[in-house]
Amino acid sequence: MANRSFHSFYDLYITDSLHSTQAHTSTATEVNPGTSTSPLSNLLLAITHLSTVAKNYGELYNILGWGEPYFTVNSKGHLCAKPHGRDTTPGQEIDVHSVIEEVLAGTTNDNKKVQFPMILRFPDVLKVHLNSLHAAFKDAIATTGYRNRYQGVYPIKVNQNKDVIQDLVRFGHDESYGLEAGSKPELLVAMGCLAKAKPGAYLVCNGYKDADFIALALSARAVGLNCIIVLEMEEELDIVVEQSAKLGVEPAIGIRAKLLTKIPGHFGSTAGKRGKFGLLEEKIYGVAERLREMGKLHWLTMLHFHIGSMIPTTEIVRKAVGEAAGIYCNLVSRYGAPMTVLDCGSGLGVDYDGTRSGDSDMSVAYGLEEYASSVVEAARLRCDLSGVVHPVLYTESGRAMVTHHSMIIVEALSANPEPPEDEACDQLMSKIRDLSSKQPRMAANGGARGLVLARRRAPEAGHRDVHAGQEDVQEGDQRRQHHLQLPREPLRVLAGGRLLGRRAALPDDAGEPAGRAADAQGHARRHHLRQRRQDRQVHWRRRHGAAAPAGPGARCLLRGRAPVGVVPGGAGMQAQPVQ
Hints:
Keywords: Decarboxylase, Lyase, Magnesium, Pyridoxal phosphate, Spermidine biosynthesis. By secondary structure, the chain is α/β, with parallel strands linked by helices.
């Protein structure tokens, strides 16, 4: 079936080198009693059914969004891997479901039964990613007239699996593809893997470094590896000078620049002027000046920057590369540093949701070709403007190199049963009818409005369902006529123990009388009508230009309506100044 190998954690490698397919026949036909169908009609019916299944599952799990062009759904509704991307032929597609069934039926290398979880790897995807990356930069260099080459490195921290690293070095041998290490264990792994790489492949050392780290990096350079030590802090230069003198090995030094360009979202939190890593522009020039004073300026060969992962747009790429290229040109033209490499770091994103929008941390608004063109064009323009020789361009793309190449398979222990479609529709319609029957019937004279207010104003009534029948409407009209005939009794408002006025206001629910809950509906109607009547009188006076009565009871405490500077008092009280 497929070339595979097992490891202790059930790691399954699948390649199409020995992959052979078997023809599967499906007879998904449905014949009504008393009717006859031809073989052609049966075949068309089966094809229609299978294509519908594939379309439904593809849309349900958005496989065409996150999996394009390496995953799809076949006619059986199974997840299908396409190890060569768009160049995958039908005979090279791998049915993941069939692979899992075959693996579970076998045993591991030590004759144990295979269990979940397991990891499926497709190393051909790594090769496609690498070839696409180098092809994109070659096209961009040829199109823009850039007068140097592209040479990438893979950051080991993205995936430290031995097989993954060895495959990447092997697939990128012709392009001198290198590795990046950020710790001493990663540096040891990189030294072992690059022993089989093409001479000239770079070994870039990033991260914070102590004396042991730098000594190990100098040892790698002593055995013939093209190792560059990237300074993250000014203090690391002293350690490099000390270890170099101790071991008798001259290093190649790079400097990480802390750019002002930032990316939005989660991945840009460590970039910008206040970022955690790298040196600001003036400090970079200070390091170059120190090297020149020591006579070691020839150690400085590379400028490196990294503004964050998942750069959403190419506009940010151009801005960052242009800013870094400006620093590079200043180091070459002003300080005379014999620099040859501009390392643009990582940031090449993966469009996980398939929208190509760049509106979230899981989406980017460009493809591989657009990214390469942005990097090359921005570097070329800046170097041409400064009259500096075009440097070798580096990127440390890790996410974009290993994505889609592996998956973890776990066992589904339980699932919620999904009801049949007809039953679900019936239940939904039943709930809709039940909710509709509980809604109050609205009358033309607004009788139900008071009932709704009553429900809102009477929480102690238990929020019971209220049905506004004809009797409720008639009773509401009678109460409304009764309260319109009552004399107006202003509410006396106390503030801080002093009477401030007689303006009718909304009563406090905390001090309601005990009998109010029993007549919550009537209370809500009374307050509503009283408030409307008072507001109508105030607006009538304003429209007709009538002077406000002198009596304090007619004055208003609402904002913007009180007399300037004073608040009217009540019976036996003088007007109070407004604070």
